[in-house]
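Incident log, structure service

09:12 report received: a user says their structure output differs between two submissions of the same chain.
09:20 pulled the input from the user's history:
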Amino acid sequence: MNKAIILLSGGMDSAVALAEAINKGFEIAALHLNYGQRTQKRELKAFNDLCNYYSISEKLIVDIEYLQQIGNSSLIDRTLEIPKNQISSNQIPTTYVPFRNGNILAIATSWAETIEASAIYIGANTIDTSGYPDTSEEFLRAYEIAANLGTKFGKNGVENLKIYSPLINFSKKEIVLRGIDLNVPFELTWSCYENDEIACGECESCLLRLRGFREAGKRDPIPYK
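09:34 re-ran on a clean worker, output below:
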């Protein structure tokens, strides 16, 4: 059985990507990132809950506080306000953490070499999103090439490490419906940028999530203010 590393934030997108990897028959290793985000404890709980639900024992939790030191994101800088009641259209919002996905993909690539995983799964999507530049299909493909060039995976010119983004062209509605098809426990996931206990319902992540469930004709099982 091939092994895949899932980048598991604890949000709905990464949970559905995890279910897709399982559905493809991969043995799963789960990677989670703590970087000083406002809901760090709640996201970690969601990660552990999902790992328990899917009986994933191979886990790696990495603390990279240097992203907080670098700053320039309202997710990690409490002096910046998280935008409320608005969904960005063509501007990158303040919640973008500079090159966060690049950092976590680098960690995943290093771990993949160690545990001999042949794939990395990420829940990135480009339809109903905040428009972060490190979630694009072009970026992920370029990173896959770089990861193979810079590791033993690319020996003899063969790309043996694959980066999969199965939701890349999914809307939030489609992600919800696909998750339901795969029996994803959405009640264990967390998407809110602001709060740990009851989701704010006002940040962009909450708004996109709520819209996805509404358009899918389903009820979001997590609590909101």
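09:41 both user submissions now match this output. Likely a transient worker issue. Closing.
09:42 reviewer note: The chain has a mean pLDDT of 95. The first strand starts at residue 3 and ends at 7.
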